[in-house]
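If you are new to this repository, start here. Below is one unmodified record pulled from the training split, so you can see the exact layout before writing a loader.
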Amino acid sequence: MKKILLIVLLLGLTGCATYKSQVVNVEPIDVYKNRVTVSDITVAAEAFEAPDKVKSAFYIDVTQKDIRPVHLFIANGPADDVRITRAQITLADSAGNEAKRVNAAYVFDRFEKNELAYAFWGFGIFSYMSAEKANEKMKADWHEKEFEEERTLPVKRNASGFVFFETKNHLSGMTLRLGILNLRTNETIEIKVPLS
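And here is the target side for that same chain:
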């Protein structure tokens, strides 16, 4: 009986789920090759598609479920404050077909349920509790890395974060479009960044 209990306990402990938050380096905006400047606002974008690169940011390969993260960088110039709204960020192919923009909570939901079910049925209650903790960490980390829903950017300031798209297509050859609002003139500045 003790041997059976020991085996069950070992299986429960060895099957514990983990999540390790990954630090994503942000380089000076001039380093990124997918970069455009319009009206003193520079926007750069870095597609995360290769499995190793995706895992370096999110610990797991989110592209397995057709999620395509784009790391967005914005440097505001010396003239006016601007506002960036995630709803004004789109991604389209050369024919104008737009990819579905999704948020970090949606991405998390695509993975979280499967991980919990696996942990519970595969290794029992110990692993279920461990998976629950790991999922909480994952959800918080992905939300923290996501570009804010709305961001006011004062003059000479920078912002960065991930925007998530759901598409089976690869990002190379697609164009990221942003509508950035100049808060002084109330003019929307359209910036298009081709991804390579």
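Two things worth knowing about this chain: Strands lie at 35-38, 41-47, 67-75, 82-92, 100-102, 150-153, 158-166, 175-182, 188-194. The two ends are 61 Å apart (CA to CA).
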